[in-house]
């Protein structure tokens, strides 16, 4: 069976978990404390980062981008990076938007400050960073609204890796209760559609010791 080394609130790991479930691929999830820098884990990925997916033959794949592209090639149903070249380019553009821009402007400022600093013993959260994350969140939800007003899903008429990537990041922040859904009903409706998919059930059952989820986190009706 495949093994996925991950961290619970890491959005890049969550993205891979969702895709594995979306494609109904069996795997064993193992939480990895990357700060321990275990020799066995570094042998799989010298960068010392998650996610890492170990195939049944022992081959290790690292990085959410390469893993997701690989899975979509070898398990094409359902296709998550599909369509004509321009459509695939749009999917990849939005994946990059959320993995890079949203991650820096929102995820790191909220999940990083509120949760990861605690586990890593790096001191108190930076209130300025948290305020910046909350402000930036409004802009990103506005962009989700802009896209959904023009399309059924973020990148087009079908669910794609763009939706899963965005939802993975938002779910990490939503665990903390920091997503102002009521200010953005269109984005909330889009997220509810993703949240209700069977592939999201395991994500919604996450419970990090010492960091309980927001009351609405696992509620499909918010």
Verbal overview:
The structure is a single chain. This protein has 222 residues and is an alpha+beta fold. The protein has helices at 11-22, 39-44, 64-74, 85-120, 127-148, 161-175, 185-195, 201-204, and strands at 2-6, 27-31, 52-54, 60-62. The protein has a 4-stranded mixed beta sheet, covered by helices on one side.
Question: Which keywords apply here?
Answer:
222 residues, alpha+beta, Glutaredoxin, Glutathione S-transferase Yfyf (Class Pi), Chain A, domain 2, 2 domains, 4-stranded mixed beta sheet, 8 helices, 4 strands, 53% helix
Task: Set down the secondary structure blueprint.
Elements: E1 2-6, H1 11-22, E2 27-31, H2 39-44, E3 52-54, E4 60-62, H3 64-74, H4 85-120, H5 127-148, H6 161-175, H7 185-195, H8 201-204
Parallel strand pairs: 1-2
Antiparallel strand pairs: 1-3, 3-4
Helix pairs in contact: 1-3, 1-6, 4-5, 4-6, 5-7
Concise overview:
The chain is 53% helix and 7% strand. The protein is an alpha+beta fold and 222 residues long.
User: Architecture of the largest domain, according to CATH?
Assistant: Up-down Bundle
Strands in their spatial order, largest beta sheet = 2-1-3-4
Q: Show unreliable segments.
A: none
Distance between the termini: 35 Å
What is the H/E order?
Answer: EHEHEEHHHHHH
Mean pLDDT reading: 96
Give the class from helix and strand content and strand pairing: alpha+beta
Specify the helix fraction band.
40-55%
Helix count? 8
DSSP summary, beta strand count: 4
CATH class of the largest domain: Mainly Alpha
Specify the biggest β-sheet.
4 strands, mixed
Fill in the CATH topology of the largest domain. Glutathione S-transferase Yfyf (Class Pi), Chain A, domain 2
What does the overall shape look like? globular
Beta-strand percent range = 5-15%
What is the gyration radius calculated from CA atoms?
17 Å
**Number of separate domains:** 2
């Amino acid at each position: 069976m495949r093994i996925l080394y991950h961290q619970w609130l890491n959005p890049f790991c969550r993205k891979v978990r969702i895709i594995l479930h979306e494609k109904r691929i069996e795997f064993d999830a193992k939480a990895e404390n990357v700060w321990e820098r275990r020799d066995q884990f570094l042998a799989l990925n010298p960068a010392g980062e998650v996610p890492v997916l170990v195939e049944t033959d022992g081959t290790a794949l690292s990085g959410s981008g390469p893993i997701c592209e690989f899975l979509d090639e070898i398990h094409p149903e359902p296709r998550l990076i599909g369509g004509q070249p321009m459509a695939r380019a749009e999917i990849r553009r939005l994946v990059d938007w959320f993995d890079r821009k949203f991650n820096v402007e929102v995820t790191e400022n909220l999940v990083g400050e509120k949760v990861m600093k605690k586990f890593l013993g790096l001191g108190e959260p930076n209130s300025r960073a948290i305020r910046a994350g909350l402000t930036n969140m409004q802009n990103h939800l506005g962009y989700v609204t802009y896209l959904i007003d023009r399309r059924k899903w973020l990148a087009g008429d079908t669910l794609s890796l763009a939706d899963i990537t965005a939802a993975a990041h938002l779910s990490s922040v939503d665990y903390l209760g920091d997503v102002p859904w009521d200010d953005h009903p269109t984005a909330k409706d889009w997220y509810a559609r993703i949240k209700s998919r069977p592939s999201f059930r395991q994500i919604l059952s996450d419970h990090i010791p010492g960091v309980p989820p927001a009351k609405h986190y696992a509620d499909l009706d918010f």
